Amino acid sequence: MGYGIIGIAGNTIDLLSLGVLKLNKEEGHDVRLKNIFEHTCSLIREFQPDEMAIEAPFYGKNIQSMLKLGRAQGVAIAAALSRSIPFFEYEPRKVKQSITGKGSASKEQVARMLQTLISINKMPEHLDATDGLAVAVCHYFQKDISTGLKKISGWKKFLSENPERLSH
């Protein structure tokens, strides 16, 4: 399970934490769900986020994988709700489009674009971490102007409003 925690200062996205919760495949599904819940609660205690964004369930290899993924996502959501933190879900295609401008982008393309958008000192070994970060950045891009955050409707608009973020 990948995660990314960001802070917003004006129009700047600051990376606060990025990582992967490694789950032991030899442990039972119940133990893995408990670990997800506890790790998510630990991140919430440490960073005290205002909101949580999560990738919506998607159909992967088979129905059993989808059910397990849905349970894992539900446990992470329950951790946020147990701390009265609102959560938001984004379809994988929406996340990829908001980061790269292309809904069918690869994990590698998303990771490279995040490097352009945010100062990431060391890229993580697992792309699940940058997937988690992508959901957080997507949520920031989708925020309504009434919340005090600038709404970005697309990659082209973001670049036109933030030319200093484009590297040559």
If you had to describe this structure to a student in words, what would you say it looks like?
α2 links the parallel β3 (52-55) and β4 (87-90). Helices cover 49% and strands 15% of the residues. The chain is α+β, with helices and mostly antiparallel strands and 168 residues long. The N and C termini lie far apart (33 Å). Strands 1-2 form a two-stranded antiparallel ribbon. It has a two-stranded parallel sheet with strand order 3-4. The protein has helices at 29-47, 63-82, 92-100, 107-117, 127-142, 155-161, and strands at 2-9, 12-20, 52-55, 87-90. α3 crosses α5 (127-142) and α4 packs across α5. The chain has six helices and four strands; from the N terminus they run ββαβαβαααα. The protein has one domain: Nucleotidyltransferase, domain 5 (2-Layer Sandwich), CATH 3.30.420. Residues 145-149 have low confidence and may be disordered.
Which key features would you list for this structure?
globular, alpha+beta, two-stranded parallel ribbon, 168 residues, 4 strands, two-stranded antiparallel sheet, Nucleotidyltransferase, domain 5
